[in-house]
Structures are given as C-alpha cells and as structure tokens.
Amino acid sequence: MEIFVNLPLESCNCPYGYGGDDCSQRAEPGEDLEASIEWKHAPANKTIEIKVDGFSGVQCGFGCMNGGFEVKILEDPRMTILNFGSHNKHSHGSRAKRQVIIRGEDQDQYKWPNNTVHYYFDEENFDFSMKETILQAMKMLSSHTCIKFSTEPSDVIIRMESDSDRNYCFSEIGHVRENQQFSFTSSCYSVGLAVHEIIHSLGFMHAHQRADRDEYLHFVMDLDGMSLQDRQQYAIWEHQILLVPYDYGSVMQYADADDNYFPINKNRFMYQTMGSEVVAFYDYLMINKYYECSCGDDALKCQNFGYPNPSNCSQCNCPYGFGGDDCSQRAEPGTTLQATKGWKNTTISLDAGFKDVNHLRMRQIDYIYSYLWITAPENKTTEIRVLQSESGKCFRGCGRGAIEIKTNEDPRLTSPRFCCNESKTVRSSHTPTVVMAYNSEGLNEYTIAYRYVDTYQ
C-alpha cells in the first residue's frame, strides 16, 4: 500500500498519545481536562483494567465528533479499536462493505441473539419512501438468509432515524446497545444502500477493510487530510474472519477512486463494478456463514454453485443468472440464444420508468433484471461485444443500471459491469455464458454482438 504524506524531516508523525520528536514521550497537553492524554502504568505481567463510570459535558453523537475519549488496547497503537460512541458512516457518492469484526477471541459478541434484529422507526423525519426502502432491504436479506427482523421490544434495539441535515447514512456495527443508531436519509435512496447499512448492523465491516484487501486494491491516501472518522472507513481492522472470497462487486465495497481517498482496483476491468448497489451472492453467503444459517444434510441439492436457502429450504440461493428451485434453469425474465460462427446482434431493453417523490428521487428503490443465456458448441469460446449502451447513466458502481457478462471461473463472483457508452469485447469459456442487465431509472438499452470462436483463436 502506498501512503503519500508530507513529513517534516526533523520530527515524526506519532500515533495519538505519543509525542516528542521521536514519539518517545507522552503527547501534550497531558493535564488539561478539556483535552487530556494520560499514560497509565502497571507492573510487568499485569493487566490494566479500566472502568468507565460515566462522564459529562460531552454530547453523545455520531463519531464522538463533539468530544469523547479513546482507550488504546491494540498491540499496534496506530489502530483505533475502541471509540466510545463510534459508528460507521456511509456518505452517498463516496462508494465506489467478515469481514466480520471480532473482539479478542469472542466471535459471537456482536451477533444478534436468535438471529433476530430488533428495530423501530423514529417516525418524525421519515417519509414513506425512505421507510419503504429500508423495509424492502430487510425483506431482501431475510428472504436469502436466516436473519429475521422484529419490532418486538428488546434490551438491544435499533432506532431507525432520519436527519434531513445529513447527506450520509450510517449505522453501528453489530449488536451493541439499547437504542443503537441507524441513520438513513434521502441521499441513500436505494435498497442496495439500505442493505449496506443493515449488513453493518449485523456485524460486518467494508470489503476494502478486509485483511486481504491489498491483493486486490491499491490505496492512495493523504493521512494529513483524513479525520479519525475517515481513517476508520479504510483501516484494516485487527481482528476479523474472512468467510468468503473478496468480491469487487460486494455491496460493502466503496467505489474506485473515491472523492477524497482512493481505493484503486488492481483489475482494470472492474473500475465500474466497485461501489455496487446490487447485493452480491457472496454478501448473502457471508451472513449465512457467520450466523450459522443452514438447512441440514438432507436439504435440496443445488446446481451451478448454489446452496440451500436457509429462509426456504425447498429452494436454493443461486448465482445471478441461474434460477429454478435447484439453480438448474435460467433466471427469469430472460432469453436463451445460440451463438454461431458469424456475429449476431441482440438488444436488451429494460424500462424501469420514473418515480418522482417530492421532485427529488427519479429512480426506483430497487432494480428490474433481465438475463441472457448464450450457448456455444463444446470446446468453443463465446465472444461478446458490447456495441452500445443507451442509458446516459455512467456512474461509479453502475448504481442506476448496467450490463454484466459472467466470465469468472467462479460464477458466484461479480464479473466486470459496463454502464458507460463504450465498446467492450469479452470472451467466455462457459456455456451457457450468462449476461445480466439491471436498471432502476428510465429506459436502458444494451446492444451486444455475439459469436463463438475456436478456443485458442
């Protein structure tokens, strides 16, 4: 990872709490109670236990932006693991996300008991569409996992709130405390963004904070310009479990080339894919593995890398493009096409219409989909050209709509997506080759050409 900073040659940049030119001293001021940094000592081979009895004069708010304190408990003092009152923030337009975070050896500390998330809506600033978006996100997650959502009272409950003064959404990580916060605004207006925040509430961090992220991403960050809160959005957390492979198309992955800090993918074909609002196959599987959702040994046998759906064990969770109870059929709606030696053209049209709510939101809260299966003779390679994209929705993460041609050996992983009007040619050794298109706003039309060629041509 490269980190670009401007450092004066005569002094060091020290972790918070350390000072002096070489970071060997306590940072100052050390006695001022308004901004106090104190060192506590203990005999060798002893553990310091710190009890927080309470404090006053500080407002409990998002990120402790109005004040707070921090206890360094990691072997690496540069990392923050415990911030009293800390949350996870997601700013709309900054997305291009275990990744399960654990504390010490307790892997279950932040799980919701009985796989049930308790919540209620603070109705004061919620409009119908924002509430509908969150409820649809809950329905999507509960229909693919064993997670349930309940409005029954509980000791730990999520307060769903909306603040019109904010342009970002955020949630606390995992099962934390009574009235834990989940803030949703009109700027996060899509089911995918709501799912992103709910997955945080289930105990997961971003995909770009995984321990293996440097195998897939290159980062350029200006540490001098980053707040502590922003650093927490990109830091690799020390205690984590990787339950599924890294996926550029995870709904938990920020966009390529963020406005302020730069996670740049190492696969140049994936730059439009990062920042997806489509919930990936592995996003669901990650949740199911962590919460130990299963259907038992006598469950339905699934094909094409699907697995029994713990929400409905008579059906499978299938990779995009595959359907039927056991993933053996093409997903609907869709069409099956036969490739030939000569080029053939076809156009995929998806009309999502427009949804005008208070003249602010012009897109549907969720996507409509269409699927193609393109078949070819055995031992032939399918070649597909994206000739034209008539959508006018060239956004990072292709949040309004895109076309995806499944070329990965693992069909569960997200393949490159295209939402800008540029010609692309890809090859696939699979038969059928799955082509997926999705849209949430207006009319999208994608014209592709396809044929088969000799595998080594």
UniProtKB/TrEMBL annotation:
<keyword id="KW-0862">Zinc</keyword>
<keyword id="KW-0245">EGF-like domain</keyword>
<comment type="function">
    <text>Metalloprotease.</text>
</comment>
<feature type="binding site">
    <location>
        <position position="206"/>
    </location>
    <ligand>
        <name>Zn(2+)</name>
    </ligand>
</feature>
<keyword id="KW-0479">Metal-binding</keyword>
<protein>
    <recommendedName>
        <fullName>Metalloendopeptidase</fullName>
        <ecNumber>3.4.24.-</ecNumber>
    </recommendedName>
</protein>
<feature type="active site">
    <location>
        <position position="197"/>
    </location>
</feature>
<keyword id="KW-0482">Metalloprotease</keyword>
<feature type="binding site">
    <location>
        <position position="200"/>
    </location>
    <ligand>
        <name>Zn(2+)</name>
    </ligand>
</feature>
<dbReference type="InterPro" id="IPR034035">
    <property type="entry name" value="Astacin-like_dom"/>
</dbReference>
<dbReference type="GO" id="GO:0004222">
    <property type="term" value="F:metalloendopeptidase activity"/>
</dbReference>
<dbReference type="GO" id="GO:0006508">
    <property type="term" value="P:proteolysis"/>
</dbReference>
<keyword id="KW-0645">Protease</keyword>
<keyword id="KW-0325">Glycoprotein</keyword>
<dbReference type="InterPro" id="IPR024079">
    <property type="entry name" value="MetalloPept_cat_dom_sf"/>
</dbReference>
<keyword id="KW-1015">Disulfide bond</keyword>
<dbReference type="GO" id="GO:0008270">
    <property type="term" value="F:zinc ion binding"/>
</dbReference>
<dbReference type="InterPro" id="IPR001506">
    <property type="entry name" value="Peptidase_M12A"/>
</dbReference>
<keyword id="KW-0378">Hydrolase</keyword>
<feature type="binding site">
    <location>
        <position position="196"/>
    </location>
    <ligand>
        <name>Zn(2+)</name>
    </ligand>
</feature>
<keyword id="KW-0865">Zymogen</keyword>
<feature type="domain" description="Peptidase M12A">
    <location>
        <begin position="99"/>
        <end position="294"/>
    </location>
</feature>
<dbReference type="Pfam" id="PF01400">
    <property type="entry name" value="Astacin"/>
</dbReference>
<dbReference type="GO" id="GO:0005576">
    <property type="term" value="C:extracellular region"/>
</dbReference>
<keyword id="KW-0732">Signal</keyword>
<keyword id="KW-0964">Secreted</keyword>
<dbReference type="InterPro" id="IPR000742">
    <property type="entry name" value="EGF"/>
</dbReference>
<dbReference type="InterPro" id="IPR006026">
    <property type="entry name" value="Peptidase_Metallo"/>
</dbReference>
